[in-house]
Amino acid sequence: MSSTILFRTEAEIARAKVAQSRPIVVETGAGPISLLVTDDLTSLEALWEELQQSVPCTTNQTYAWARAWARHGLGPLGREPVIAVGRGTDGTPLFLWAFEAAPKFGMKVLSWLGQDHANYAMGLFAPKAAAELGPDDIVSLLHAMAREADAALCVLRSQPFAWDGVANPFAALPHQPSPSAGYAVTLGDFEALFERRFGKRSRSNFERKERKLGEIGPLTFGWAETRDEKLALMDTFFAQKSRQFAAMGVGEIFDAHARAFYRELALLEGDNPSRLRLGYLKIGDTVAATFSGAVCHNRLGVALSSIGEGEMQKQSPGAVLLRRQIEEACRDGLAFYDIGVGTARHKEQWCDVTQALFDSFVAFKPQGYGLTLPLAAIARGKRAIKSNPKLWALARRVRRSLFGEVPASKDESA
Description:
Blueprint: H1 3-6, H2 10-20, E1 24-26, E2 33-38, H3 45-54, H4 63-74, E3 80-87, E4 93-104, E5 107-112, E6 124-125, H5 127-132, H6 135-149, E7 153-160, E8 162-163, E9 166-167, E10 176-177, E11 182-186, H7 190-197, H8 200-216, E12 219-223, H9 227-248, H10 256-266, E13 277-283, E14 286-296, E15 299-307, H11 317-331, E16 336-341, H12 345-350, E17 353-355, E18 357-363, H13 369-387, H14 389-403
Parallel strand pairs: 5-7, 15-16
Antiparallel strand pairs: 1-2, 2-3, 3-4, 4-5, 4-6, 7-18, 8-9, 10-18, 11-16, 11-17, 12-13, 13-14, 14-15
């Protein structure tokens, strides 16, 4: 394993930053593009926030979200940000790609910044650039960026083919379908939506479950508002999710770094599109379920959800909370309630939008193929299992029997 990649001296780090501070020119079919590759997020704040307001994106591509992940999830894990900014000859910003670099097997591997905690991963493209940059241009720009970053390969997961009606230029890269898709609800008149997605008996069932929960104790639906409320609800979420993961035989993904990352997002203020809004259903003082997400470009995207334990699970508190939040999102005039990536019963019930996603495994150096080929094969295997209901059910049962502590809850609504 190469120590020059894993353990760099301060002088080497300084030289790398100087090298990355000078843009290079890449010739494309849309004209020459000035490409800057840097690890300095702070210097890009104004440009980044300007782009995120005017181009298709999700919360996962916003500046404060990236800053929080860079602060809590990169350095402690031995990773570093790699941000590529492209400008036209007149200085107009054309795109911003936020990557992170991690050392693996003596090579530098690029992925989307924070992609393990993102539902959807992509770059920010000005509409003109998204329309005019062709497949060869994207390949040339990505390879030029990789040379500047000294990267051997990239592993780019969960990328939408299009977002808000704009095609994703990265679909021009070699790719394969992601193991899972994204799911969203088109909002509008809630009563019409509710009747369209659920029969009379199912609608009555929602009312019955909510009534039964109310018999246990007074119900409160809401959003954490104060700092203390937010921190307390985050702690409750982490505890509930840990129990759920243990029951499912899934390893803990919310380590200390991830928890600090989400706490920072929850404590953001105002209408910041990176702000994590913490929603809950309480029975008395007990948190029965949580659904939390952020609002970006008229879309509420769910990032976290959990359910409590005990007898109340029989009445599906997660499903009851989800219905209330979708109703509220309709009243607020939002366009979509996005429940995120991965199949689940409650998504099939509610969602009328299925977002196909793709993964790209691209080698920039010969040794990079030693990782891209097996990683692509593993992803194809996961998709084959998840696409087959019988195989997926079997895989979940095996995982629970091998690693789970208790039987998983039948309530799949959180």
